[in-house]
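Each record in this resource describes a single protein on a pair of labelled lines. With that in mind, the following record should read easily:

===
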Amino acid sequence: MTTDQTHAPETNDDEALHHGDSLHQWVVGESFQHASVQPDFTTASQLRDRLRHRPPDQDNPLRIRPGLGVDDTEWSDLTSELLKAYGTAVLPEGRPPTAVPRHSVLKHSRDNVLIGDAHVEGDAFQAQLAVVNDTEMLRDHTADQQHVPGMLLIEASIQLVTWAVSEIWLPPAGHPPYYAVMHASAFEFSRFVFPLPTLLTGTFTRTGPAEDDKIPLSAEVRVRQAGQDCSRVSIDLHAFRPALVFAIEDGQARRTLLRAAPAA
């Protein structure tokens, strides 16, 4: 999915640079290699190749920061390798976000967790976009563009809401966490999101009285990058006690099977 870019093209002085000449580089995953058309983006493999052919200057060190598509392990391996090879001629800055536990966003594979460094404050919550190179939504996406796919931003927003429900509404002792179940959503895009640090912020609003087993809510998540809003996702949901939602699901499955049964 791509976004509808309605603004005039933006230009800046970086367009005059030859690729790889910048002394500040964002290291992005190989899945974002098309972004390296911009002189300040590089993949780890491109960076290694560049430094082999033109070692960094100790007097003008190369500063590198992790962009999207780079996880903690890859960043640690890369920075250790460059420190050993070039010393302080390469200066790593920052680190990738630490992904939330996969079970908290209902994922079997940790590679498909898209949020990290998450926290709540009252009914508000936020996280950093945490995209590893091998996440399924990049591996199976065919649009060869510089930007983050829109479907990935929607999934990240849903993961943030799922995570926040279990963090904000705590169940009685001995009971499993509340379970977020959506029943409506809407989303809009105003700007492309690139493989740079990206903040997701969200709020909950109660939309009705809480019952013993469910809480009616609406949520709004905004995706921001470089100080600008890029997309917004609105979700209507219930925070369910798992036993209730599973009972509803089971009952609907049985009724659907009866309706689908061939006539005698």
The mean pLDDT is 88. Residues 150-168 form the longest helix (19 residues). The chain has five helices and ten strands. Helices lie at 44-53, 72-86, 136-139, 150-168, 242-260.
